[in-house]
Amino acid sequence: MAEIRKTRKSQEAVRNESLFPDLLGGGQIYILRYDYIYGTLSVSVNGILLREGTDADYIEIGNRKIQFNIIMDRNDQVVCNYIKPL
Predict the structure, then answer these.
(1) What are phi and psi of 25, to 5 degrees?
(2) What are the pLDDT digits (tens) for 58-74?
(3) Which residues contact 63 (CB under 8 A, 6 or more apart)?
(4) How far apart, in whole angstroms, are the C-alpha atoms of residue 71 and residue 8?
(5) Sheet with strand 11-19: strands edge to edge
């Protein structure tokens, strides 16, 4: 279960949110529960922190989705932390 903490009057931190694949995304697109503030997202798979970018592990799509550039297994545990606006 994701932990949410208030950081400022207009922001909250979301920690340890487990992500699941978008069924229409072929197993490579994952949807976050909340919108996030760009630049605050960190993603780990099976405890390994990943890098964002087209030539790295994943890319951000909008403000609620990520697409992995690496092959995901259905048993992979995807966890993220980010700041969300109120």
Answers:
(1) -95, 10
(2) 999 988 999 999 988 88
(3) 35, 36, 38
(4) 37
(5) 3-8, 11-19, 78-85, 42-45, 48-49
Q: What residue has token string 């400022």? A: 8
CA–CA distance, 8 with 77 (Å, rounded to integer): 29
Residue 71, CB-side half-sphere exposure with 13 Å CA sphere: 0
Token pair 């976050």 in the structure block, residue: 32
pTM: predicted TM-score of the whole model, two decimal places: 0.82
Structural tokens at position 70: 């690496």
Question: What 3-state DSSP class applies to 58?
Answer: strand
Do 22 and 29 meet the contact criterion of CB atoms below 8 Å apart? yes
Is pLDDT of 24 > 70?
Answer: yes
